[in-house]
Amino acid sequence: MLSLLAPYSPLLATAQAEDVKVCCDAIETDLYLIGDSDLQLSPFTDLFSDSSSSASFETAVTSSEPVGKWILESAWPGLVPESTWTVEMDYTVTDAGGANLNLSATLVVGGSSFTGFLGVDQSFVAQGSGKVSIDIPVEEVEVNPGSEISLLINARTVVFSVPSGGAKVEFFWGSEEHPSVLTAELPIIDLTFDEPIVEGDMVYFTVRIDSPFGMEALVFSKSIELSINGVAQTVDPTEVLEGDSILVIWEWDGATGGEESVNVSVTYELQEGLILTGTTDFDIETFDGTGEGGGFYPLNEPLRTNGKGSPLDVSISMELDSEEGGLRLAQTTILAIDGEMAFWIRWGLDHLGDETIPLSPVLKNFDGGNINDEQRGSRVIENAELSQFENYMDSYYITFFRLGLGLESEDLIGDLSDAQSFAITLDLMGEDRVRNAPLKLRIDSLTPITSGADYRILSSAFMSPQPSPLWSVYDVFLTIETSAMTSFSTIDLKETDDVDINHLRFPWGESATIQATGMTQSDKFTIDSRPTTLILHAPIGLTMMMTLILAGGLWLSFRMVRNRAKYPLMIEMVLVPVVFALHFFALEPLYVLTSSGTIVFIWWATAMISPRTGDAKKPQSSPQVLLTNFPTIACPQCQTSNPVTSDLRPIRIQCSGCDRIIKIVS
Predict the structure, then answer these.
(1) Are 349 and 386 spatial neighbours (Cβ–Cβ below 8 Å)?
(2) For 170-225, how does the pLDDT look when each residue is reduced to its tens digit (9 = 90+)?
(3) CA–CA gap between residue 71 and residue 39 (Å, rounded)
(4) Kind of pairing, strands 471-482 and 310-323?
(5) Can you tell me the distance from the alpha carbon of 344 to that of 437, in angstroms, rounded to the nearest whole number?
(6) Which candidate, 436, 79, 401, places its Cα nearest to that of 235?
(7) Where along the chain do the CATH 2.60.40 domains lie?
(8) Percent of the chain with pLDDT over 70
(9) CA-CA distances (angstroms) from residue 204 to 8, 247, 533?
(10) For the whole model, what pTM was predicted?
């Protein structure tokens, strides 16, 4: 461990101690039966399949036939004590009253073989489902590295009782529904405290995990915690793969200064309910310092995941505009990265082009450019390293996203090969040291889009499936803006209801926000659209057409009711805000225009059936103007005086009081 830090710190010391193994000799462990064609024994339920594997017997068995053989790929060295191992297996009997079973289970441990048989009390199983168990007595045996540990289950005889057509007994394993298991007592994992590393007033405590499971021991375990002097450490540790060992390193700044003894304990939960613990004391000596050394700096490449994954925030902004009759999409994608992934990226930037240590392929393929040996491995990310990373990403981004970040770039940022221009920049957020601190990866692009063609805004497929999750959860926040003459037409969400979409339309453009929080790689969704420049879909065009339809229909409606009651039409004016609401909430243009036309039709129908007013039947008499120059005649009906303006006889005039026609003959 000293060699990991020696080139980098002048105030470096090791504690007065040696590496201490604190756990474990043989422990009782559940080894689950896993797999279909490749049958394995594993303590991790995370390896269960969605559906069970099985072996069935549909006719009577009179000679031994195998149910399956499961293997623990590499045994861990140590002493297997004398004990009894037990196999439990799920079964189902169908189309028979029951079955008489004669099963055997054979264990190979190291070079020794042990066999157990199904008990007499379980030899008959009734129709339906249940479990059978076989006890296998195991003698004390020494296991060496690479020794075989395997379990073979045989059906020696199977006889059906009262069978009907299709009688069958089926054995299941490998899923949560059928967790068939071998309970064994054997050495399976070692937990070791490496001697602490002291850097000024910082102390680094390392737990080394050795097991036959490699990375699975970290990825699929339930938890690992460290306590110092009885106080649990809440700061995330750093994980490093060193050969076949996993190193989990915590930094501690609680030393009192000078020489002191500290008690360190580890709690490791291998599987549900199986908690391994170990404790020891170390004598350490710390020195004056600020506690700001930047944290543990491993010589070997750190792990990208602790098995649980790092948090990820995805922020995307899109601006759609027209360009020479087509469409142009300006997109900015910002990935806010924290946890192990952020530390791995920072460490990788400090080792671009490093040929002195083994690197993963995604880092090894980076061109170091003009970075010199003084800058490389300096624990600080220089401007030259940052520039080289950003420049090389122009051609390397697909590989870096897929193999480094576990993300599919095309599903996240689009196909940049179609872009007129793009740039990838890294924001260290004010922290240029190689430490566990967040950073942001920004991708800006300007891409032409075909008007009227289907366009995928975002898909959950950008998070590629990862057996060891690189990302724990991710949040997505996406904003969309269009110009007055462009539109996304529709924003269609499929496969989930866990994504919130707010799509609005204004005369000057569309605006949308898409938000999802707490998503995992098992969550599936797609968001599709159809960008266009059609005037029918353009916000300003749709607004004008809708306004013209409503204004024209309303004007004609009021012309139709000039001699009729207007209050029914006035009441129906409340339908105007409804249409504008449909437009505002970005419903499809055809639906908005159809709704506008329907409302106009309702207005016209209302105007036609509105009752005539009393004034329409009997207009008010206009004020009398008596002209002294003309003779008058009184109406025999209403006695209104009416001027006679002509000397012609006979003549007909209309009474100004009651509209009666008066005929004058002389």
Answers:
(1) yes
(2) 999 999 999 999 999 999 999 999 999 998 888 999 999 999 888 888 888 888 99
(3) 7
(4) parallel
(5) 10
(6) 436
(7) 2-24+189-286
(8) 94
(9) 15, 12, 61
(10) 0.77
* 30, containing H or E segment: strand 27-34
Q: What is the CATH number of domain 2-24+189-286?
A: 2.60.40
Mean pLDDT on 537-549: 91
Q: State the Cα–Cα distance between residues 363 and 365, nearest whole angstrom.
A: 5
Q: What is Dmax (Cα atoms) for the chain? A: 148
Asked if the model's pLDDT at residue 626 lies above 50, the reply is no
Please report the DSSP string for 488-523 in residue order: ----EEES-S-SEEEEEEETTEEEEEEEEEEE-TT-
> What is the tally of helices (H) and strands (E) in the chain?
11, 35
What CATH class has 27-186? Answer: mainly beta
Q: Cα(290)–Cα(292) distance, rounded to whole angstroms?
A: 5
In the predicted model, what is the mean pLDDT of residues 110-119? 92
pLDDT (tens digit, 9 = 90+) per residue, 479-506?
Answer: 999 999 999 988 999 988 889 999 999 9
What residue type is 236 in one-letter code? Answer: D
337's tokens: 């990265």
Residue intervals of the chain classified under CATH 2.60.120.260 are 27-186
Q: In whole angstroms, what is the distance from residue 30 CA to residue 272 CA?
A: 10
Taking a C-beta distance cutoff of 8 angstroms, is the pair 563, 613 a contact? yes
Tokens representing 49 are: 């399949």
CB 492 within 8 A of CB 524: no
Q: Contact at 8 Å (CB) between 215 and 248?
A: no
Rounded CA gap, 403 and 304, in Å?
11
CA distance 249 to 343: 13
Residue where the block lists tokens 């940049």: 416
